[in-house]
Amino acid sequence: MAEYKTDLLIIGSGPAGYTAGIYAARAGINSLIVAGAQKGGQLTLSHEVENYPGFVEPLSGYDLMDRMQQQSSRQGVKVIDDEITEVDFFDHPFVCSSAGGNSFLSRAIIIATGASVRWLGLPSEQKYIGHGVSSCATCDGFFYKNKEVAVIGGGNSALEEALYLTNFVDKVYLIHRRHSFNAEHVLQKRLHENRKIIVIWNSVVDEVVGKEHPLEVTGVRVRNVKTDTIRHFDVSGIFVAIGHHPNTELFRHYLKMDSSGYLATKEDGCSTEIEGVYAAGDVCNPYRQAIIAAGCGAKAALEAIKFL
Fold first, then answer.
1. What average pLDDT score do residues 148-154 get?
2. Is 0.90 topped by the overall pTM?
3. Contact 304/108 with Cβ under 8 angstroms?
């Protein structure tokens, strides 16, 4: 347990958090990053990043975030492996407490806590999380070598997961509740050219099916939303990729949010209604793109620097 005093506290260590730290440090601001539950953020789960400017060859999300951390550390930013669990924005300097029992006092704060996986909400899904139900093909895909799996969703994440899984599995059922994808054209093209992927249109998951001893997934029940027809698919794994929700619950009593839980910031800026508190990245925009989060982090840092 320790007490830290800093000019700028950055909560979160994704592209927004690290970029904010780099900009603040280069301006001579004493800054500190509390990494959060998932160091590097959601991007660390991406198998391949090929649209981040400056990298001709694709690299993994983990490698990209590792480089950002190294760059921020080189600039003198201290990164602490801990998670903020309580904040007090009523007094100044602001006070935050962590899961590790540490206390943080700061003159300004940048919230860059990112977003988390959105699950289906089925009891059977929750039962088998970690036993055949996953949200990360990069993490768990190898375990399904030569097997059949299902991916749930129709956006970029779902198509990326399905395409990645074809490196290991024999077949991927891509289950989507509509009859068209909300994904980049290049991903749709790759998917349609891949014979290992079978798209199940206009369908939702009714139940995850599995065994008790040992606890493991054996199949999935799927309902057609137009005909109510039920189909069963024998699969060994299910990957949920239906989106994310912003990690903003911690700030609900202090900051304004929209109906989806994203933090509200002033027009064309990153400042919240509390002077000295800023938001950057996926907590305040739904784009979920590393380059946008990084740019937002830089912007938040410049505003915080001006405030300080």
1. 98
2. no
3. yes
Residue 66 falls in the annotated catalytic set: no
Does 136 participate in catalysis according to the annotation? yes
Of 96, 136, 270, 284, which residue is the catalytic one? 136
The Cα–Cα gap between 89 and 277 comes to 8
Q: Which of 85, 91, 128, 87 is nearest to 107 (CA)?
A: 91
Q: With contact defined as beta carbons under 8 Å apart, do 64 and 72 qualify?
A: no
Q: Beta partners for 173?
A: 150, 198
Query: What mean pLDDT comes out for the span 151-165?
Result: 95
pLDDT in tens, 250-261: 999 999 999 989
Question: Which of the residues 82, 140, 270, 282 is marked catalytic?
Answer: 140
Over the chain, what is the mean pLDDT?
95
Q: pLDDT tens digit string along 201-241?
A: 999 999 999 999 999 999 999 999 999 999 999 999 999 99
- Whether residue 139 lies in the annotated active site: yes
Radius of gyration from C-alpha coordinates of the chain: 21
